[in-house]
Amino acid sequence: MINKLFRKKSVDQILKDSQDGTGLAKVLGVKDLVSLGIAAIVGAGIFSTIGLASFEGGPAISLLFIFVAFACVFTALAYAQFASTVPVSGSAYTYAYVAFGELFAWIIGWALVLEYAVSNTVVAISWSQYFVSMLEGFGILLPKWITMAPGYALDAHAKFLAEGMAALNVADKAGLEAYMTAPRIADMPIIFDFPAGLVTLLVTWLVYIGIKESQRASNIMVMIKVGIIILVVLGGIFFIKPENWTPFAPNGLRGVMGSVAAVFFAFIGFDSISTTAEECKNPQRDLPRAMIICLIICTVLYVAITLVLTGMVNYTELNVKDPLAFVFKYVGFDHMAGIVSVTSVIAITSALLVYQLAQPRIWMTMSRDGLLSKRFARIHPKYKTPSYATIVTGIVVAIPSLFFKMDFFVDLTSVGTFFAFILVCAGVLYMDHVGLSARSKFKVPYINGKYIIGVGFVLAWILVYSYAQSTISEWRALSFAEIIEHKSLVLVFWGSWVLLAVLGFRYNFSLLPVIGILINLYLMSELGASNWIIFILWLLVGLIIYFAYGYRHSKLNKITG
Questions:
Q1: Fewest Cβ atoms closer than 10 Å to its Cβ: which of 59, 193, 244, 499?
Q2: 91's torsion region: left (phi>0), alpha (psi -120 to 50) or beta?
């Protein structure tokens, strides 16, 4: 049984399976892929979570964007090598099947389902907030009870009962209004986020009717939102006050790294490009180019917009859900704020479009391998899209977006993504070890890490002892049980570095994938324990489904007996 759990698919077998009657339309070129990547990356992150990140870390968040992009570059190189070797849909799921076997492939596929479902939900909720704000700007007021998750209204009502009206802020008052004016069934208020659910269904319909239609819509929306971001940067430069950049890191390294989840959320979209491999005209050439171009463009945009926002307004004012519009209202440029609000709706729609495009293709690939029901691999005869998987995706995203608070989802999004990124980087090391890299039309540049990985570990500890005495003192004050409870991921990070140093010395590991593994592990260690608990529970549910269905119905199981 152990051997069956780690059975691998050969590249030739995966390519053959992808060509057996899937019928996906090959219409995407490198420009289309770059557009889809920018659509996914420049979405809710730059129009929403960037405000919270700046509030927590100050202007130094611009450096965190560079650091996270740096991590993503190494991961993108690994993705690009896999994409040029195995040019099929499925993203990290397919790559794990080649490198580590079926069980790891299932775990990654299941983690990606969580990543895209949660990301889609966050984007849909964020879209709803901007859409309602835009309508209010035109004098159209929707009832509050159809514009938010019930949790916001219940929290506001509880706060009102405990502390009175004087304690409520603007958002609390909106929640209280929703609670008081909502229709009731058995004295329970009926409250839901109708715009979030509606936009999810509309985007799902667009994705359902064709990749070409989706690509055209994405291209138009990307041009609009990149244009408005450039306009914000150029217009905002004239309102910058350099004193707002002082102090640059008001809450120190802890404040900056505390925003890892929000910042990383801004970048996770680049791996969605790889899910469209079977719809590319020349995937082995275009996918690697598109991934790197996307990261470069988006990093420049994020750093520029962060410096402009924190230069226009002091970071303490940026704890808002619509920071780009807010800063122009703050400086009295209301016309620009209105333009930004309208454009934000378009921008976030494009991000939702790409996420809804990616998830059905992962399900389709898992179904094609026998790990999910055959219905998920069904291709529409007219539209040439994974029809059943697309409909299920719409339902899975629309229902939570109607009833759940965005706060619940943001941090959770990053856990599964980090996990997938680490396995993809490790997969490149495996490909190098067994000779699969010889088939890659794009390769991660090889730098021998035989000695560098170990030397880097020693230098890292020297730096810790030289410049992080406060952190060392904090560790010494913790009991063994507290270290296990709160710092176990940090221990995993250092232990993994030691293991990679030993294996790298023995097998001459390529340095760049190792750096990708270590940076992603470090960023993982900065996430909260509650996110890990939910993620582990999600994986346990996935394992139950795998052993109940996928293990027995796997095509490899039928081949190997």
A1: 499
A2: left
- pTM for this one? 0.79
CA distances from 263 to 73, 88, 320, 383, 411 (A): 15, 29, 15, 36, 10
69-87 residue pLDDT tens: 877 888 888 888 887 887 7
Q: Phi first, then psi: give them for residue 435, nearest 5 degrees.
A: 90, 5
Residue 497's pLDDT band, with cuts at 50, 70 and 90, is: very high
DSSP string, 103-142: HHHHHHHHHHHHHHHHHHHHHHHHHHHHHHHHHHHTT---
Question: Pairing state of beta strands 184-185 and 188-189?
Answer: antiparallel
Tokens matching residue 315: 């970071």
Q: What is the mean pLDDT of residues 41-61?
A: 75
CB of 354 within 8 A of CB of 393?
Answer: no
Q: How does 507-542 read in b/e, with b if 16+ C-beta sit within 10 Å?
A: eebbbbbbbbbbbbbbbbbbbeeebbeebeebbeeb
Q: Comparing C-alpha atoms, which of 370, 366, 416, 418 is closest to residue 392?
A: 366
The number of beta carbons lying within 10 Å of the beta carbon of residue 163 is: 11
Collapse the DSSP code of 62 into the 3-class scheme (helix H, G, I; strand E, B; otherwise coil) and give the result: helix
Which token pair is 344? 């934000």
Burial class (CB in 10 A: 0-12, 13-18, 19+), 209: middle
Kind and range of the H or E run holding 189: strand 188-189
**Nearest by Cα to 362 from 96, 160, 113:** 113
Q: Which token pair is 205? A: 């319909």
Question: Domains in the chain, please, with CATH?
Answer: 2-138+195-436 (1.20.1740.10), 151-191 (no CATH), 443-560 (no CATH)
DSSP 368: H
Average pLDDT, the chain: 81
